Amino acid sequence: MVCSRNSALAIVLLTAVGIGCSYLPGKGGDFTSVSDKFSVAFPGGPSDVETKSEVPKFAVTGTTYSKMFDNRSDNYRSYEVQALGLVATDGKETKDILKIGLNGWDDEPGTVVKDITVNGQTGIDSIRTVEIGPAKMSFREIVFWSPNAKKLYLIQIAATKKENLTAKEAEDFVRSFKITG
Question: Which ranges in the chain belong to alpha helices (H)?
Fold first, then answer.
């Protein structure tokens, strides 16, 4: 089969447009932080991810990347990655460093904690529900440690419906997390 030069050019352009469209807002693709050395696939794609810098008491640097869905509804969900720079970790066991990220919630009654491995990175995964009066919110926190980057990564999912913590959308988010440095 012989293609004309224009036909070949049209095929190349259509392919390029198709590849480019996969990175448009609302489409797939990973969110990447070069400075915090990770990537993750937020639900709905990498657009509209909010970034805030805050340093908790136990860290020297801290940045939060987040995205919310169905705000003010009974199907509210939020997805978040916190990248926290730690320095006083020499001589500490990895499990002890990971528990820093859970901030004591691992000892609360009703909290379920288990080991997890995602993309070769081992961490801990916890789920808990908090009730204050009529309000009820469930949380899933997965903590990973990168000794090379000296960063603690806290992946958090909050939802009004507990089943959303382990739904496909949440599992895809958690399973997409990669430490890149």
Answer: 5-21, 94-102, 168-176
Residues paired with residue 155 on neighbouring β-strands, in sequence order? 81, 142
Distance separating alpha carbons of residues 62 and 133, to the nearest angstrom: 32
For 57-103, what is each residue's pLDDT tens digit?
878 899 999 999 998 888 999 999 999 998 878 888 999 899 888 88
CA dihedral 50, 176, 114, 94 (to 10 degrees): -80
For residue 150 the two structure tokens come to 């000296």
Per-residue b or e along 44-62, where b marks 16 or more CB atoms closer than 10 Å to that residue's CB: bbbeebeeeeeeeeebebb
In Å, the largest CA–CA distance within the chain is 73
Q: What is the pTM of this model?
A: 0.80
Q: Please provide the distance, in angstroms rounded to a whole number, between the alpha carbons at the two ends of the chain.
A: 47
Q: Which long-range contacts (CB under 8 A, 24 or more apart) does 29-34 make?
A: 30/176, 30/178, 31/65, 32/180, 33/63, 33/65, 33/83
* Angle, vertex CA 15, rays to CA 10 and CA 20, nearest 5: 125
CB contact at 8 A, 41 and 59? no
Q: Spell out the alpha helix ranges (H) of 5-158.
A: 5-21, 94-102
CA within 13 Å, CB half, 175: 8
